[in-house]
């Protein structure tokens, strides 16, 4: 008989995780409070965008290995993959995790394994999750086995990395760790590292904090380089030739469910000791305002039209969570600019702004502002030439567009000084 798995949360991690386990022979039930997600999954369809996921889900649903439900079911193992957003004061909101734990307690049986994959602050497993089970009579580590295994995947490669990446498994005791490792061995080909629950919690947070701090360094370099008329992108490229230097790329800010959120979980637990982490968050959070000020400095007529290309926080995905592009749109709208917004990867219901076609977005524009590095934007020059857009300003905050036409004023974070050489005037298309 196949082992039974119940996954709580069918988002960007839970749904791929469910499909991978189902494909390896587990009998999987995915649980979500979103009726659309449940209905789509039971029809062999997906409600999120991820490379290869649609085909895999259809296959395992057709085989009968994966189904969805609005409520948990009896299972051998439970994996919790619900979101952990931050509150307005940047403290963690654990309500989804707490609700997920409470939802499965009526279905638990002796010997069950419970794994939390949601990103959580240090000590959450020991101080929040474990006591919830103890409160209803379970002896954690003896009757049921509890572990934390943070997800560590890149959107666009999730199905690959869920299998091939190194996994970190931290149980509340050694036997819990061992039981959780047995679960992951059924799908993971990469190395499985074992540790304590608190070390597993902290390792995930530090992985993303490292990247956030590194990006903050690059973004601060952009600001310094603008003042000194230095090419920041060239400086980064040259510095990275050093064998022990790896400066990340700058951008319009940091988004997503990890980098823009996880550092706050550390700050919350040790505010006096995390000064560098806090400063990095402030620098990255300042980039949308920096981009708005660039636009206003060189396009002072706020009646001008600006074309926004891309709203997701990174290229070739449909995820707008914590995306700095959304804040930039707010800032520009508040200044009075007319906006044409185009993103081929998202649906209208995901945002509160009107999504245009590309033709609508660029018609009558004075500036094309690239905020996401979608593949569709890499050949933007050809599209602009086709629309006879002479003297249009392209401000590429992701350094992803290849432009060689002299009639197109191309600016990225490496040549911001070029903006000073010629005033931008509104463009009127016939």
What is this structure, in a nutshell?
Among the domains are: 204-284, N-(1-d-carboxylethyl)-l-norvaline Dehydrogenase, domain 2 (Orthogonal Bundle), CATH 1.10.1040.10; 287-421, NAD(P)-binding Rossmann-like Domain (Rossmann fold), CATH 3.40.50. It is 38% helix and 13% strand. It has helices at 14-23, 35-42, 53-63, 95-104, 124-135, 158-164, 174-184, 197-228, 232-239, 262-269, 275-285, 287-298, 324-335, 358-362, 380-386; strands at 4-8, 27-31, 66-69, 77-80, 113-116, 145-148, 167-171, 192-196, 305-309, 338-342, 367-370, 393-396, 409-412.
Write the layout of secondary structure elements.
Blueprint: E1 4-8, H1 14-23, E2 27-31, H2 35-42, H3 53-63, E3 66-69, E4 77-80, H4 95-104, E5 113-116, H5 124-135, E6 145-148, H6 158-164, E7 167-171, H7 174-184, E8 192-196, H8 197-228, H9 232-239, H10 262-269, H11 275-285, H12 287-298, E9 305-309, H13 324-335, E10 338-342, H14 358-362, E11 367-370, H15 380-386, E12 393-396, E13 409-412
Parallel strand pairs: 1-2, 1-4, 2-3, 4-5, 5-6, 7-8, 9-10, 9-11, 11-12, 12-13
Antiparallel strand pairs: 6-7
Helix pairs in contact: 1-3, 4-5, 8-10, 8-11, 10-11, 12-13
Task: Provide an overview of this structure.
- With 430 residues, the protein is of the alpha/beta class.
- Among the domains are: 81 residues, N-(1-d-carboxylethyl)-l-norvaline Dehydrogenase, domain 2 (Orthogonal Bundle), CATH 1.10.1040.10; 135 residues, NAD(P)-binding Rossmann-like Domain (Rossmann fold).
- 38% of the residues lie in helices and 13% in strands.
- The protein is built from 15 helices and 13 strands.
- The strands form two sheets. It has an eight-stranded mixed sheet with strand order 3-2-1-4-5-6-7-8, with helices on both faces. The protein has a five-stranded parallel sheet with strand order 10-9-11-12-13.
- Strand 7, helix 7 and strand 8 form a beta-alpha-beta unit.
- It starts with a strand and ends in an 18-residue tail after the last strand.
